[in-house]
Design a protein that fits this description.
This protein is of the alpha/beta class and 157 residues long. 50% of the residues lie in helices and 15% in strands. The protein has seven helices and four strands, in the order αβααααβαβαβ.
């Protein structure tokens, strides 16, 4: 699958409009750094693991597929709400900076970006995700489709 075709012209433009920062692991609690959170979760009953460990590049792809399943209604519900109200949200907020926690592929975000673009509002987008791969991939796609968009991504928990 080709995500984005890089050319000399769009590489410089994209680099000027994209910044991705990786949050330092030193900000994480000690039990996260040394794996104690995993040991603690797996020795509990019922067993559990912190979700951050599921969202590497492959885990993010799997989650995107889960979101398309008929049994997984949150994505459909959120998308329906945004289809109905994105224009109103854009009108009410005007020029702003859009911050999204757990941005993933930013699919639903496009509904808001379209609404802001229709109003000719400039917009900054701050996607935050634990997966640097999907964040970078979706940022490049968004920059191709929204020529005025500025993105400052954050990778971390």
């Amino acid at each position: 699958m080709v995500i984005f075709q890089a050319t000399k012209e769009n590489i410089s433009s994209l680099e000027e409009r994209l910044e991705i920062n990786y949050l330092k692991s030193v900000n994480l609690p000690t039990n996260t750094i040394d794996g104690q959170d995993i040991i603690s979760g797996l020795t509990q009953n019922p067993k559990s693991l912190p979700p951050q460990y599921f969202y590497d590049d492959r885990g993010s792809q799997l989650f995107e597929q889960i979101c398309e399943l008929p049994e997984y209604y949150p994505t459909r519900t959120e998308t329906s709400i945004l289809h109905q109200y994105a224009g109103e949200i854009a009108r009410m907020t005007g020029v702003c900076e859009l911050v999204e926690l757990g941005s993933g592929s930013s699919t639903k975000t496009r509904l808001l970006l379209d609404a802001y673009q229709a109003l000719k509002n400039s917009l900054g987008y701050v996607p935050i995700d634990v997966s640097g791969g999907i964040l970078t991939e979706s940022a490049h796609e968004l920059l191709q489709d929204y020529p005025e968009l500025q993105i400052q991504g954050l990778v971390g928990t």
